[in-house]
Amino acid sequence: MRAISFSLNGVARKLTVDDTRTLLWVLRDDLGLTGTKFGCGEAVCGACTVLLDNEAVRACATPMSAVDGKRVVTIEGLAHEDQLHPVQAAFVEHLGFQCGFCTSGMIMGAHALLLKNPKPTRSQIIKEMEPHLCRCGAHVRIVQAIESASAAMAGGAR
Amino acid sequence: MSRAKDVMEVPEGWGFVQTMDRRDFLKLTGSGLLVLWSVDPLPGQTAAAPQRAAADFNSFLHIGADGRVTCLVGKIEMGQGVMTSLPQLAAEELGVPLSSMDIVMGDTDLCPSDRGTFGSLSIRMFGPTLRAAAAEARAVLVQMAAERLGLPVADLEVREGIVRSKTHPARQVSYGELTAGKRIERHLDGQAALKKVGAFTIMGQSAPRRDALEKVTGKAKFAGDIVPTGALHARILRPPSHGAKLLRADTAKASAVPGTRVVRDGDLIAVLHEHYDEATRALGLIKATFSPSPSKLTHETIFEHLQKVAPEARTTDSRGSLSDGEKSASQIVEQTYLKGYVAHAPMETHSAVAMAEKGKVTVWAGTQTPFPLKTQIARALNIAPEKVRVITPYVGGGFGGKSASQQGIEAARLAMASGKPVRVMWSREEEFFFDTFDPAAVITIRAGFDAAKKIIFWDNTIIGAGGRGSALFYEVPNHRTAVRGGWNANPAGMHPFATGPWRAPGANANVFARESHMDMMAAKAGMDPVEFRLWNLSDPRMRRVLEAAAKQFAWTPKPGPSGRGFGVACGDDAGTYVAAMAEVKVDKATGRVQVVRVVCAQDMGIVVNPEGARQQMEGCITMGLGYTLSEEVRFKDGVVLDTNFDTYELPRFSGVPRIETVILDSPDLAPQGGGEPAIVTTGAVLANAVFDAVGARVVQLPMTPARVKSAMKG
What we know:
Chain A has helices spanning 23-30, 86-94, 103-116, 122-129, 139-154; strands at 2-8, 11-17, 49-52, 55-58, 71-73.
């Protein structure tokens, strides 16, 4: 057990946990943030994607020791009050989901992409999103949503 | 962005009503108009037997004094969009704005009994009943308005929940005013007239998805996200192979982990801990010994095995005389087609949470069959069914795989055994182990055409897939279809693990075989594959669908293999007709298939939510890429070798083609199925496109690079 300090969705947190535990289960079980999903447990589906210092990581393969001193953003931290983030708004507009289980990870992955590359080409989007699985087959619309979010953000949206 | 903003302004209450308990329900239904349904309606059955007591609280619709309409349905939402489209049906018939509708789904205490959400039945079979209930409610309300306003019914019309006089529009009364302070019960007799297509204002329009906001913000609750106070995760001890029996288990080390409890209920041994990862670690400390599996089958030997052990052939369809037909044939083509086991692999693994309180067990489960699950739980716990309540939150994908809900029973048993609320979330490995796979299939077709290139006979023997999707809509005077086993009711030992319904069960294998065979015959006849189909097709509905696909694709006739990489396939499923066309590129060095473009046309009757229907078509085509190109469950001696997505390859972004969907205008046909039809043609349309590209016929799914290369070598 050790004290881990980090920023979670903009709020400073300090937890005393076994630092070999993963961020996924600390988020879900200790902190009650269930928007980050468990899909595979081996970093091969993307459902648990969150941002760690603005980089997309798989929370199921991120030990708490790697979180110390970092900034974590989850799906719950993306919208500001009732204002959806442009990526979320674009997923709604293009219906970039069906069952919704991969959606948190997809949105966080897309958000991370746009942070480092605000105007990705279609092939850059596909390359970045490739590790994310969606069983319902919403891929076409997810790509459209990311392109649309990119355009909206270039137009001055947050 | 404007559309997103519109959705943002959708009023509260559009999402699931997930928190309603019996007391809330009694309060809700204490006044207002309630349209009641009888017993579990079978698919296709809409006539009511109005004996059911109101005390059973099973109703379809409730209209409150505030004008809000609550729609109660036993169906569940797993991404297919019925949470959005079913209220469209009710709102249309009632004449109320969509924004006044609430929906409660899949709660066995509140909703009318239902066999399950599968078979593309929600709109096709349940839809008419819901519409009838809404129409009945409207008729009652209009009658009440006539009495209140002193006007004849013929003078009244309904708009936006307000009944008003056509001749004196100032004389009006709202539904809410009519129902205020009253409790009116009506039993559905199906006599009220339904609206005509031309009068629709809500059906046929794309409605915003009710689940959108919750799903993009992480607020949507799936079974694993429901955490009753004091709930513990359970990780269950599992056998390493199918058929293995537990000989002994030493749980001492696991029990010693702080915060851990080991619970045993008969054959069920589980480690309980507040944290999933810590329960998992403790589970790993159990030393267990299992007997070896008796199974000696592998994914390679299974086809021979199936041919040996499948039940006797049952003729499901026949006409004319095969031997007469064969005598008139100028060319005969015989081919056996194979397809391996395929996993459902929903992104949400089977999950459930159970809580026992005051003799009653409540289970939140990711299930397609809440009502059958309730019965199964009652049986497993040996308690009365009314002591069990199953609540279905959002389901993270089902595809048929959550028709089986063993995890709900496990959670209930462990909650009873431990006295604590228990959460069961299968690991991905458990999901691959206990999944009810789409069965492997062996399909042999022998068919011939005459000198005029008309198909003269067709003899089809299907092992493993069942008969769905095998019907011949082509004109064939002499034919026979014989089926040996399906996805259920097979003799023990036929499959080494469980099989079950997988999105359009059996049809993916059967359409792959039939439409591949049509292509082989077209090639043998030296005809373009579309022209050959049309030449042998008189069904006007299928001709129209095929022609619509050809128009969108800009198909130009050329006998295969043309080198263009174009393919075509037709199918029918759940009352919907579908035709697909595809363009592929084949890497001749590696055998890898890249799908460039898929066009899919379908006639699904009246379309309730066009954008929702398109989403289903796109989803079908994308999911279909998996069973066609990469997905096959590998196993050996009872061990499932694929345990996660590192080896079991789902379709990914880079493999998804340009998809164009065409939905035919079909106002004279009632709404048909939409969740499954467009997946059935994927196998054949791509196999035919591969043949057209490189002249090689791949007869086994999935068409892995190795199989494509092997076919190219001949």
